[in-house]
Automatic annotation (TrEMBL):
GO terms for molecular function: oxidoreductase activity. Residues 16-192 form the DSBA-like thioredoxin domain. Gene3D superfamilies: Glutaredoxin. It comes from Streptantibioticus cattleyicolor (strain ATCC 35852 / DSM 46488 / JCM 4925 / NBRC 14057 / NRRL 8057). This is DSBA-like thioredoxin domain-containing protein. InterPro entries: DSBA-like_thioredoxin_dom, Thioredoxin-like_sf. Pfam families: DSBA.
Amino acid sequence: MTPTPSDPRLPAGPDTIAVHTDLNCSFAHVAVHRLHVTRRRLGLEGRLWFDFRAFPLELFNEEVNARPGVDSEIAVLGALEPEAGWRLWQGPDWAYPVTTLPALEAVHAAKAQGWHASEQLDRALRRAFWAENRCISLRHVILEVAGATGAVDVAALAAALDSGSARADVMAQFRAARHGKVVCSPHIFLHDGTDSANPGITARWVNGDFGVGYPVIDADHPEVYEDLLTKAAALAGL
Protein backbone atom coordinates (compact mmCIF):
# COMPACT_ATOMS: atom_id res chain seq x y z
CA MET A 1 0.00 0.00 0.00
CA THR A 2 1.34 3.44 -0.92
CA PRO A 3 0.28 6.03 1.65
CA THR A 4 -0.63 9.58 0.71
CA PRO A 5 -0.20 12.61 2.98
CA SER A 6 -3.97 13.09 3.01
CA ASP A 7 -4.84 9.50 3.95
CA PRO A 8 -7.07 9.97 7.02
CA ARG A 9 -6.51 6.40 8.20
CA LEU A 10 -2.84 6.96 9.01
CA PRO A 11 -1.38 8.43 12.20
CA ALA A 12 -0.17 12.02 12.04
CA GLY A 13 3.38 11.20 13.06
CA PRO A 14 5.82 8.27 13.00
CA ASP A 15 5.78 7.95 16.80
CA THR A 16 2.05 7.16 16.74
CA ILE A 17 0.08 4.05 15.74
CA ALA A 18 -3.51 4.47 14.52
CA VAL A 19 -5.75 1.82 16.06
CA HIS A 20 -9.22 1.64 14.49
CA THR A 21 -11.57 -0.17 16.88
CA ASP A 22 -14.91 -0.31 18.61
CA LEU A 23 -15.07 -0.60 22.38
CA ASN A 24 -17.47 -3.57 22.46
CA CYS A 25 -15.48 -5.68 19.98
CA SER A 26 -13.85 -8.68 21.65
CA PHE A 27 -11.15 -8.98 18.98
CA ALA A 28 -10.26 -5.34 19.62
CA HIS A 29 -10.11 -6.00 23.38
CA VAL A 30 -7.48 -8.66 22.69
CA ALA A 31 -5.59 -6.38 20.31
CA VAL A 32 -5.50 -3.39 22.65
CA HIS A 33 -4.32 -5.56 25.54
CA ARG A 34 -1.53 -6.98 23.38
CA LEU A 35 -0.51 -3.53 22.18
CA HIS A 36 -0.09 -2.27 25.75
CA VAL A 37 1.68 -5.40 26.98
CA THR A 38 4.06 -5.49 24.02
CA ARG A 39 4.87 -1.78 24.22
CA ARG A 40 5.73 -2.15 27.91
CA ARG A 41 7.88 -5.21 27.28
CA LEU A 42 9.79 -3.39 24.53
CA GLY A 43 10.43 -0.37 26.75
CA LEU A 44 8.48 1.97 24.45
CA GLU A 45 5.98 3.43 26.93
CA GLY A 46 6.02 7.22 26.81
CA ARG A 47 7.84 7.08 23.48
CA LEU A 48 5.38 5.38 21.12
CA TRP A 49 1.69 6.28 21.31
CA PHE A 50 -1.66 4.76 20.33
CA ASP A 51 -4.14 6.98 18.48
CA PHE A 52 -7.50 5.25 18.96
CA ARG A 53 -9.87 5.86 16.06
CA ALA A 54 -13.59 5.12 16.06
CA PHE A 55 -14.77 2.09 14.06
CA PRO A 56 -18.40 2.15 15.27
CA LEU A 57 -19.91 -1.23 14.46
CA GLU A 58 -23.41 0.06 15.14
CA LEU A 59 -23.08 2.53 12.25
CA PHE A 60 -21.56 0.02 9.84
CA ASN A 61 -24.19 -2.62 10.65
CA GLU A 62 -27.04 -0.18 11.32
CA GLU A 63 -28.00 -2.12 14.43
CA VAL A 64 -26.94 -2.74 17.99
CA ASN A 65 -23.90 -5.00 18.39
CA ALA A 66 -25.95 -8.00 19.48
CA ARG A 67 -25.34 -9.37 22.95
CA PRO A 68 -25.67 -13.05 21.84
CA GLY A 69 -22.80 -12.51 19.41
CA VAL A 70 -20.68 -10.71 21.99
CA ASP A 71 -21.37 -13.38 24.62
CA SER A 72 -20.44 -16.17 22.20
CA GLU A 73 -17.00 -14.62 21.72
CA ILE A 74 -16.02 -14.21 25.36
CA ALA A 75 -14.93 -17.77 26.14
CA VAL A 76 -13.09 -18.10 22.83
CA LEU A 77 -11.30 -14.73 22.85
CA GLY A 78 -10.90 -14.70 26.61
CA ALA A 79 -8.87 -17.89 26.38
CA LEU A 80 -6.36 -16.09 24.14
CA GLU A 81 -5.72 -13.24 26.61
CA PRO A 82 -7.33 -13.94 29.98
CA GLU A 83 -5.43 -11.06 31.62
CA ALA A 84 -7.28 -8.54 29.47
CA GLY A 85 -10.31 -8.98 31.76
CA TRP A 86 -13.55 -10.74 30.79
CA ARG A 87 -16.90 -11.62 32.31
CA LEU A 88 -20.25 -12.60 30.88
CA TRP A 89 -22.80 -9.84 31.30
CA GLN A 90 -24.29 -10.05 34.80
CA GLY A 91 -26.66 -7.10 34.73
CA PRO A 92 -30.25 -6.99 33.49
CA ASP A 93 -30.82 -6.91 29.75
CA TRP A 94 -32.10 -3.34 29.85
CA ALA A 95 -28.77 -2.16 31.32
CA TYR A 96 -26.70 -3.58 28.45
CA PRO A 97 -24.99 -0.83 26.39
CA VAL A 98 -27.03 0.01 23.32
CA THR A 99 -24.38 2.33 21.85
CA THR A 100 -20.66 2.98 22.18
CA LEU A 101 -20.71 6.32 20.37
CA PRO A 102 -20.56 8.50 23.53
CA ALA A 103 -17.64 6.46 24.85
CA LEU A 104 -15.81 6.58 21.50
CA GLU A 105 -16.37 10.33 21.49
CA ALA A 106 -14.93 10.59 25.00
CA VAL A 107 -11.77 8.72 23.99
CA HIS A 108 -11.28 11.12 21.10
CA ALA A 109 -12.06 14.17 23.24
CA ALA A 110 -9.45 13.07 25.78
CA LYS A 111 -6.74 13.47 23.12
CA ALA A 112 -6.93 17.22 23.82
CA GLN A 113 -5.34 16.32 27.17
CA GLY A 114 -2.58 14.25 25.55
CA TRP A 115 -2.09 10.77 24.16
CA HIS A 116 -1.64 9.28 27.63
CA ALA A 117 -5.05 10.51 28.81
CA SER A 118 -6.78 9.14 25.74
CA GLU A 119 -5.00 5.79 25.94
CA GLN A 120 -5.85 5.34 29.61
CA LEU A 121 -9.50 6.24 29.10
CA ASP A 122 -9.80 3.86 26.15
CA ARG A 123 -8.31 0.99 28.12
CA ALA A 124 -10.39 1.73 31.22
CA LEU A 125 -13.64 1.87 29.23
CA ARG A 126 -12.85 -1.49 27.66
CA ARG A 127 -12.24 -3.02 31.06
CA ALA A 128 -15.39 -1.35 32.45
CA PHE A 129 -17.47 -3.08 29.79
CA TRP A 130 -15.72 -6.44 29.40
CA ALA A 131 -14.62 -7.15 32.97
CA GLU A 132 -16.92 -5.02 35.13
CA ASN A 133 -20.18 -5.15 33.13
CA ARG A 134 -20.75 -1.40 33.27
CA CYS A 135 -23.01 0.41 30.84
CA ILE A 136 -20.51 2.58 29.00
CA SER A 137 -23.31 4.17 26.98
CA LEU A 138 -24.07 6.41 29.96
CA ARG A 139 -22.45 9.82 30.50
CA HIS A 140 -22.01 9.42 34.24
CA VAL A 141 -20.39 6.00 33.83
CA ILE A 142 -17.94 7.37 31.25
CA LEU A 143 -17.00 10.19 33.62
CA GLU A 144 -16.65 7.83 36.60
CA VAL A 145 -14.37 5.57 34.57
CA ALA A 146 -12.37 8.61 33.45
CA GLY A 147 -11.95 9.79 37.03
CA ALA A 148 -10.68 6.40 38.16
CA THR A 149 -7.84 6.49 35.61
CA GLY A 150 -6.07 9.32 37.42
CA ALA A 151 -4.95 10.50 33.99
CA VAL A 152 -8.00 12.40 32.73
CA ASP A 153 -9.24 15.86 33.67
CA VAL A 154 -12.88 14.88 34.23
CA ALA A 155 -14.26 18.42 34.21
CA ALA A 156 -12.62 19.12 30.85
CA LEU A 157 -13.89 15.81 29.48
CA ALA A 158 -17.42 16.54 30.69
CA ALA A 159 -17.32 19.95 28.99
CA ALA A 160 -16.15 18.33 25.75
CA LEU A 161 -18.93 15.75 25.87
CA ASP A 162 -21.57 18.37 26.65
CA SER A 163 -20.45 20.61 23.80
CA GLY A 164 -20.02 17.72 21.37
CA SER A 165 -16.61 19.08 20.40
CA ALA A 166 -15.29 15.65 19.37
CA ARG A 167 -18.43 14.38 17.64
CA ALA A 168 -17.61 15.61 14.15
CA ASP A 169 -14.17 13.99 14.30
CA VAL A 170 -15.65 10.64 15.34
CA MET A 171 -18.05 10.77 12.42
CA ALA A 172 -15.18 11.72 10.10
CA GLN A 173 -13.30 8.64 11.29
CA PHE A 174 -16.35 6.52 10.48
CA ARG A 175 -16.61 8.01 6.99
CA ALA A 176 -12.88 7.50 6.38
CA ALA A 177 -13.25 3.82 7.28
CA ARG A 178 -16.17 3.08 4.95
CA HIS A 179 -16.13 1.15 1.68
CA GLY A 180 -13.51 -1.30 2.88
CA LYS A 181 -10.83 1.30 3.59
CA VAL A 182 -10.67 -0.01 7.15
CA VAL A 183 -11.46 -3.70 7.12
CA CYS A 184 -12.58 -4.41 10.66
CA SER A 185 -12.21 -3.71 14.34
CA PRO A 186 -9.30 -3.86 15.09
CA HIS A 187 -7.27 -2.54 12.16
CA ILE A 188 -3.85 -1.01 12.83
CA PHE A 189 -1.99 1.48 10.63
CA LEU A 190 1.59 2.74 10.90
CA HIS A 191 2.81 6.10 9.59
CA ASP A 192 4.37 4.57 6.45
CA GLY A 193 1.11 2.87 5.45
CA THR A 194 1.87 -0.54 6.91
CA ASP A 195 -1.41 -2.01 8.14
CA SER A 196 -2.71 -5.14 9.83
CA ALA A 197 -6.36 -6.11 10.22
CA ASN A 198 -7.13 -8.21 13.33
CA PRO A 199 -3.38 -8.72 13.77
CA GLY A 200 -2.22 -12.31 14.00
CA ILE A 201 -5.69 -13.84 14.31
CA THR A 202 -7.56 -15.84 11.68
CA ALA A 203 -11.13 -16.67 12.69
CA ARG A 204 -14.31 -18.09 11.20
CA TRP A 205 -17.88 -18.55 12.34
CA VAL A 206 -19.50 -21.97 12.72
CA ASN A 207 -23.25 -22.80 12.69
CA GLY A 208 -24.25 -19.28 11.73
CA ASP A 209 -22.91 -15.73 11.58
CA PHE A 210 -22.36 -13.32 14.46
CA GLY A 211 -25.20 -13.54 16.96
CA VAL A 212 -26.20 -17.06 15.89
CA GLY A 213 -23.11 -19.24 15.61
CA TYR A 214 -19.79 -19.07 17.40
CA PRO A 215 -16.22 -18.14 16.44
CA VAL A 216 -13.40 -20.61 15.86
CA ILE A 217 -9.81 -19.38 15.93
CA ASP A 218 -7.84 -21.09 13.18
CA ALA A 219 -4.57 -19.27 13.87
CA ASP A 220 -3.19 -16.94 16.50
CA HIS A 221 0.24 -15.32 16.18
CA PRO A 222 0.63 -12.71 18.93
CA GLU A 223 4.25 -12.17 17.92
CA VAL A 224 2.97 -9.92 15.11
CA TYR A 225 2.56 -7.16 17.72
CA GLU A 226 6.28 -7.10 18.38
CA ASP A 227 6.86 -6.84 14.63
CA LEU A 228 4.43 -3.91 14.33
CA LEU A 229 5.76 -1.98 17.33
CA THR A 230 9.37 -2.61 16.39
CA LYS A 231 8.72 -1.25 12.91
CA ALA A 232 6.86 1.76 14.33
CA ALA A 233 9.79 2.45 16.67
CA ALA A 234 12.20 2.30 13.73
CA LEU A 235 10.04 4.76 11.77
CA ALA A 236 10.14 7.12 14.75
CA GLY A 237 13.89 6.69 15.17
CA LEU A 238 13.51 5.26 18.67
